[in-house]
Amino acid sequence: MLGEHELIARIRRRAGPPPAWVTLGIGDDAAVIEPERGARIVLTTDSLVEQIHFTRQLTPWRAVGHKALAVNLSDLAAMGAAPRASLLNLALPTDVTVEDFDELIEGFLTLAGTAGAPLVGGNITRSPGPVMIDVTAIGSARARRLLTRSGGRPGDELFVTGQLGAAAAGLALLRAGGVRSTLDADSAACVCRFERPDARVRCGVTVARRRAASGAIDLSDGLADAVHQLAGASKAGAVIDASEVPVHPGAMAVAARSNQDPLTLALSGGEDYELLFAVSRRQRRNFLSAVQQSGDLTVTRVGRLQSEPGAWLNRDGRLEPLGPGFVHF
After folding, report:
1. Do the domain assignments include residue 98?
2. In principle, which of 123, 127, 183, 231 could form an S-S bond with 188, CB 3.0–4.6 Å?
3. Are residues 301 and 160 in the same domain?
4. CB of 81 within 8 A of CB of 42?
5. Helix, strand, or coil here: 307?
6. Which pTM was predicted?
7. Which residues contact 308 (CB under 8 A, 6 or more apart)?
8. CATH number where 22 lies
9. Kind and range of the H or E element at 257?
């Protein structure tokens, strides 16, 4: 492994020149960026820790770099904020090779370039234990266009983007020793969803700019957790219709092979990084139009907020408590 300054130089060469709004980028004690006129600065941070969020044996370094940024971009998307810049902090053991490092940085910078979140700084240090990757993403949004978890109201419909359970199914496939070259299309898509989540930035920003949703949250820890979080922040209850939850075909196949309920993967598997929106009935048409405008993305109505407290799952007309989702501790 090279020294800190040599590694930073490699990042700077690969990153290339920053956009015009970055007054001072990689190489000084701190970065300087110009705020977007009339907008609020939106900040988020998240971490990936080896053996907790990824293992070297299962996940390629380029995918690790991609995911480290994507999970932060997903938070910006849930707020309706457009990406502006990113910071990357790395704690690396000495057995990480220069080739591993370059692959990680390549994954990060490729996504940073396509998402409009140029890398403007960070830190590199030695770790005596696992690889630790901390990312801060910086975005911007107009004050009256921001989406929050607390904006939902009783009577709002709940919509989710994409299909759920894919990331959890992908992780299960890798842990079971699945060989990538032999996976069918649905299974390969699940592995890709786990390793390279697609933050729904364009959708979140478009919906927010059109004021088409009351509130939003991303699905980092499963649909059930997101519903609990959004309903709780909005001081409302929620009912999810089990039959309407869009379960990914790969998740259904994995669940069938392991005698699991596929709905469980969708509700509590986590790491899908889709978006859950609360939408008033008055804004329903505007919301669906905004989603269509944002690109080739499906959206499904999965339930509603209500004034009665609690989060519930409607399964064949019977209400049962909605589980907690993925639990970290």
Report:
1. yes
2. 183
3. yes
4. yes
5. coil
6. 0.95
7. 237
8. 3.30.1330.10
9. helix 249-257
